[in-house]
Every structure is written in C-alpha cells, then in structure tokens.
Design a protein that fits this description.
Layout lengths: L5 E7 L13 E2 L2 E2 L1 H9 L6 E6 L2 H9 L19 H16 L5 E6 L7 H12 L5 E7 L8 E4 L5 E4 L21 E10 H7 L8 E4 L9 H14 L1
Parallel strand pairs: 1-4, 1-5, 6-10
Antiparallel strand pairs: 2-3, 5-9, 6-9, 7-8
Length: 236
C-alpha cells in the first residue's frame, strides 16, 4: 500500500512590518520558527517539512536548526499583500517538476504560533486521513466576540460605529458573553488534500471541517512576543 505523502509547509517571509524579523527573533534562546518546526518533526503523520523563505539569511538559520528550504520563494510572492496560496502553489510546482514529488495532504503551519501542540496537529490530520473532511481549520474560541468590535469613521468629525454592518447592537450596548452565539478564530493550522488546492485554488474547500483547541498565541507585535516570553518562562 502506498504511503500517504503528508507535507508540512512553514512560511518565513522576511518583510514583517509589525515586528521586524519576527520569524527568526530569539524566543528563549531559539529563533521563533524553531518551535513550530519542532512540533512538526514530532508528528507521527507528517513525513516531509518544507520551509519557504525569500531570505538567504533566513535560509542559513533554518539549515542551522535542522530545517529544509528546498526552493527559494519568489520576491513577488513575498509582499505584504501577497496571497498565501501563491507561494504554496509555487513550492508544489517546483517539487513536482524537480523531484516528481506530489503530496497527498498539505499541512500549513505558522512560525508565529510557538505553542502549537503536536498532538493537536496530528488529531487534525487524522480527521482528514479518515476522509471526514477534504480540508480542515484548527480554531479557538474568540476571546472578544466580533459583534462587539468598533471602528472609527467620519472625515471632518470622527466618531465610533459598530464594525459589523447592520449590527443591531449600539456602541454603548452592554451584553453578557452568553447572549452571543459562539464565535471562533483560526488557530493557524490548515490541512487539506492536494486536490482541494487544485480544485479551489485555496487551502480550504467550500465546507471546511474544524477542530477546536485552546487559545493559541499568534505573534504579530512586540507585545505578543513579550507575552509569549512570559508564558514560556512560566511554562518552564
């Protein structure tokens, strides 16, 4: 029986604006990407890990910590507004052309989530392997409900408004969390069969499955990074 090819893809773009070089910034003595790479290596399902970066500097650091950057990411797929699917499709195209490697399942992981657990990644993969879903997103319950979000509008005179269009709630409404339907955000593990990428030009199909996990830190700012440092120190 043919072994199922399960490819984990970790993107390390070098042009972060919120926190410069966050993907290689030292967290507890190791570059940030090290933790998701470590989690992927412990997986009982993932049998190849490819790291995609546009930076020669990053590539050297990845190699030092046991990662593989098989192909360079094109600069035009590394811009602030570049869709993620573009660099993943580019990577898959090069793997097919140069190695005749075509994965059955693609697992997208983020370096900015250093506390992602291998057991959660494996459980999510197993749901796709069992054909329960063609694609799946790992999610966490929202800490603040999206219907409570506010925005600043107006040109000459600025004022507050509800963020969700046609929201029946007023800016000053005070409702308990229990009065809202549950809301969730992605916890930054996406898993899909290769055919989903081919059919939908996306990492998710029309009706993606889900798996709920505890809240995961996703580092985007210096404040996020400091919180991760605090959590890691307390974890030790």
């Amino acid at each position: 029986m043919k072994k199922t090819k399960i490819l984990a893809v970790i993107g390390l773009r070098s042009g972060s604006k919120g926190l410069k070089d966050k993907n290689i910034k030292k967290l507890n003595g190791k570059p940030l990407f090290f933790y998701i790479l470590k989690a992927a290596k412990k997986s009982k399902y993932i049998n190849r890990i490819a790291i995609s970066t546009d930076s020669k500097k990053y590539k050297k650091i990845v190699k030092k910590f046991g990662g593989d950057c098989p192909y360079d990411r094109p600069n035009n797929y590394s811009l602030d507004n570049s869709a993620e699917i573009l660099f993943i499709k580019d990577l898959l195209k090069k793997m097919k052309k140069n190695e005749n490697y075509i994965p059955d399942i693609v697992v997208r992981l983020l370096a900015t989530c250093p506390f992602q657990r291998t057991k959660d990644i494996d459980k999510a993969i197993s749901l796709v392997l069992k054909n329960k879903y063609d694609s799946l997103a790992v999610i966490s319950k929202a800490k603040q409900h999206p219907e409570k979000a506010l925005k600043i509008i107006g040109k000459k005179k600025k004022y507050l408004a509800t963020y969700v269009k046609n929201n029946p709630l007023k800016v000053g409404s005070s409702l308990n969390r229990q009065q809202f339907k549950e809301a969730y955000f992605r916890s930054n593990v996406l898993i899909c069969k290769k055919k989903v990428i081919d059919d939908y030009d996306s990492l998710t199909s029309k009706k993606p499955g889900f798996m709920i996990v505890p809240y995961q830190i996703d580092i985007d700012t210096l404040e996020d990074f400091k919180f991760a440092e605090f959590k890691m120190l307390n974890k030790r």
